[in-house]
Amino acid sequence: MPRHLSEAQRARAIAKLEENWSLTEVAAELNVSKSCIFYIKKRWQGEQRLQRTIRQGIGKVSTENEDIALVEFINHNPFETAVKAREETLFPGSLRTTQRRLKQCGFKNCVATHKMFLTEEHKQRRVQFANEILQGNEFWNNVMFSDEKTFQSSKNERLHVYRSRNRRFEENYTLSTTNSGRFSVNVWAWISVHDPGVCW
């Protein structure tokens, strides 16, 4: 079924209607919907014209400078909400427009990652340790892998952050892991090449 009729087809539809064809018959003849023929008839009777009305698109509610201000605010405050960004930058669009504009500029609203930040000393000592153990296969027979998990009574809520793709673990978009101040249960377990270990 064609999306729009040509002007010649619309003229043909009017001719058929003037020959007392029904809307259904004309629609079937031109392979269009009945409502399409109805609006052609209505336009002809009211305005004596066959041309379709050219709709004007809605212009952007924000200027380029307003878009830049919005993006700069989120760049400097990635953990703020779109509501806050709209208020602080006086963005003229609605909340939905604000969110859409941020998405168009490459920002995605994601759940923030939690991790402990390593200091330069931590990083250097880890590299040093890795270099020291690269000394033959016998080393691993004497290695025990262990890990621990702390279960806390505090409420760990998800916090959203605006960021671009592939930048999840950058410090600007990551929350530092901190102690809750409430009671917690620590669990520790180990495993080696010889034994699955235990869990305490």
Automatic annotation (TrEMBL):
Pfam family membership, one: HTH_Tnp_Tc3_2
GO biological process: DNA integration; DNA transposition
Cellular component aspect of the GO annotation: nucleus
Subcellular location: Nucleus
Coiled coil regions, renumbered to chain: none
Alphabetical list of SUPFAM superfamilies matching this protein: Homeodomain-like (SSF46689)
Gene Ontology MF: a single term: DNA binding
Domain Transposase Tc1-like: from-to ranges: 70-133
Main location: nucleus
Sequence intervals crossing the membrane: none
Name used for this protein in its record: Transposase Tc1-like domain-containing protein
Annotated source species: Aromia moschata
The organism's taxonomic lineage, starting at the top: Eukaryota, Metazoa, Ecdysozoa, Arthropoda, Hexapoda
